[in-house]
Specification:
Radius of gyration: 16 Å
Strand content: 15-25%
Largest sheet: 4 strands, antiparallel
Number of domains: 1
Shape: elongated
Length: 106
């Protein structure tokens, strides 16, 4: 499990797999402990939002492709990256606004 902490808001807790995924997206390579500094937060938010947008576009394209071939729509995990990332994105935004770093595993 990952427990992300900031003085700006409540903790965000994610399963190991999902925490590592978000950390990989923001360039932290799934480290077991670390920090997102205030200076790194805008880029982290942008990276997460871009990944969420890419996933949504890929899902939409897969559905469109199946429809064009008159095949059943593909089945997807109902919990998307957007669902998992939004609490962390919110934490990043709040922490940035209050100039508070985010830490985990320390």
């Amino acid at each position: 499990m990952f427990k992300f902490k900031s003085k700006a808001c409540g903790d965000v807790i994610l399963l190991q797999t999902h925490g590592k995924q978000l950390l990989d997206i923001i360039g932290k390579d799934g480290a077991d402990k670390g920090i997102v500094t205030v200076a790194q937060m805008p880029a982290a938010i942008d990276a997460l939002q871009a990944a969420v947008d890419r996933e949504a576009a890929a899902r939409a394209q897969a559905v469109a492709d199946a429809q064009s071939r008159h095949e059943p729509e593909p089945k997807f995990d109902p919990i998307t990256l957007k669902h998992r990332a939004l609490p962390f994105i919110d934490m990043l935004r709040r922490s940035h606004a209050e100039q508070a770093d985010i830490t985990w595993g320390v």
